[in-house]
Amino acid sequence: MLLADSFLPWYRLSWTVSRYGSGQQTRHVNTATAWHSSSGWSLAVLLGVIAAVGYVTCRAGTNRWPTLPARLRRLFLLTATMSLLVATVSWLTIPSVDAPGGYGFVAADEIAGGVRFGDIVRDHLSARETNVTWGFFIAVFITMALVLLMLLDIVRRTDRRAAAIAG
After folding, report:
1. Residue 106: is its pLDDT beyond 90?
2. Looking at the whole model, is its pTM more than 0.90?
3. What single-letter DSSP state applies at residue 131?
4. 35 in Cβ contact with 6 (< 8 Å)
């Protein structure tokens, strides 16, 4: 689910253009996926997918290697937690609308280096009216659910193992 969600809009850039002379205003919106907007978000998706696939693989190999999967499950839990942390930190590093250096009034169509006003440049995100969008929030929810399910499974397995040893 996380991999599919990574192709949904994670970042949204919206701006209003006011025509000189007529005062006519037009609203514009541009969106980008996790892959097109941020290396941090791309890394977070990869970590989350690796954690989910690895955890399921460990669960399938429990009968063959009884001690190895317990350690690997904890490693994949840590990987999923890092995925959530990387996604959140990447979001928090985007400058807010009130931060100096954000876009206000721009008189030219092109800024520097052939980048047009309204283009979303990977790893150079600057918030205007809205930055992250629904795809990002779904990914955070999926990753949080993944971490909680992994943690619950590890706790449940530990309780069962302790009961088997005591009994």
Report:
1. no
2. no
3. -
4. yes
